Amino acid sequence: MERPQDTEDFHRAARSLLEASARVGSNPLYVQGAGGNTSLKMGDVLRVKASGTRLADALVSDVFVDVSLSRVRQGVRDGAADPVAGAALGAGGLRPSIETTLHALMPHPVVFHVHCVNTLAWAVQPAAAAALVARLDGLAWAMVPYCKPGLDLTRAVAAAVAERPADAPADVVILANHGLIVGGADCAAVEALLDEVAGRLRVAPRPAGNPDRARLEEIAAGSGYRPTRRDEAHGLALSPAAVRIAASGSLYPDHVVFLGPGVAVAEDRAALDRVVSASGALPFRPVVLVPGAGVLVPEGLGEAGEEMVAALAMVVARIPDGAGVSCLSAADEQALLNWDAEKYRQSLQTSQTLQPR
């Protein structure tokens, strides 16, 4: 019997998935670092991005894994602790995405899950659901409260999708404090829908001045910190509103996983020394905002971590000055930091994130 992945239709759809994934993954307004994932269903095959890989590399590296769609769905129905265990088709060292169950339960042949900056700027605000009604008018959409990524999120999204008519499922799902899911019949339709949603939710970023690099270097000298290399990331510290919002707490999971919980604020070297002392026993040293000057990061922070700092700056710059924000709780943060699935994803990025201390 011919397998779906051996058919010409599957090869054509799989190629479209690679091309669309590379485009979406190369857009920092949609995906940062190893975040985000895409998938394709055909027959009993679910082709989904592998954990810890980068969508931007889809055309040059092996970043996808095939799993049995029916087996994953049955595992979810049975309440299995890990519905993806044993579902992989074929050999290989890659592990399916943390969000594989989410992709499996979405009814669409193609699903993209991204950490869209413009979406996040809305999705961290307490009144987001009401505010988005007009902006998303005419689309089949739903909003889901924050849940831990993985199985908890899958069940919440499945419940939201089930509330709509079976012949008109939610093609757009806004994830509070997390991101955006879009689904459709093929990659072209899903990519177009993603662009439409991002366009409808677009917010002009708050203007930011230039960092005071001399002051940052002076404060950081010999501390184990350095100025961030991303110019746009310094905007986190260059307006009172940005400092207030960024210092409120952790806004979404990838910040916690790759940078540690929250950020710190230090006006001078004495305050920075207190931050270093207070974080001495922690696995992460926090990103530090120096109001009016810019952003300091631990010296061991690599490119993936730099991307996450820049992403936070892009999100914060799109949140209105007076807006409230909802942050992850301490329990939410600990659930992410102690989660084996996220430790695995982070281990694949070791050279690009904070080095263990």
TrEMBL record:
Transmembrane segments: none annotated. The keyword DNA repair does not apply. SUPFAM superfamilies: AraD/HMP-PK domain-like (SSF53639). The keyword Transmembrane does not apply. Keywords: Plasmid. Residues 16-205 form the Class II aldolase/adducin N-terminal domain. This is Class II aldolase/adducin N-terminal domain-containing protein. The lineage of its organism: Bacteria, Pseudomonadati, Pseudomonadota, Alphaproteobacteria, Rhodospirillales.
